[in-house]
Amino acid sequence: MAARSQERRSERLEVRVPPSLHNRVSQAAALRGQTLAAFVTAAVQDAAQRAIEDAEVTRLNRNDFAALVRALDTEAEPNHALRAAAARHSAITGHA
């Protein structure tokens, strides 16, 4: 399977934008020394990657991460909700 950067086929993606945005994007592309199509393609690819990562990756600040680590390191007896969830899991899957 060919890598995405080496794909030979391409799909057309059309979007209508206000003239002011078109001018701004054209200016940005020129400043980067890129064609308008190359600039927009790279920007869309970056935005898509960020959107996917935002949906798939959970980020914690230092305080929340420290609280998570403390919670994971603390040995505690399972509470009622956890015991009930484990019982439901066992009933559904047949695994203890």
Automatic annotation (TrEMBL):
Keywords: Toxin-antitoxin system. Pfam families: TacA1 (PF08681). The lineage of its organism: Bacteria, Pseudomonadati, Pseudomonadota, Alphaproteobacteria, Sphingomonadales. This is DUF1778 domain-containing protein. One of its GO terms (biological process) is regulation of DNA-templated transcription. Belongs to the TacA antitoxin family. SUPFAM superfamilies: Ribbon-helix-helix.
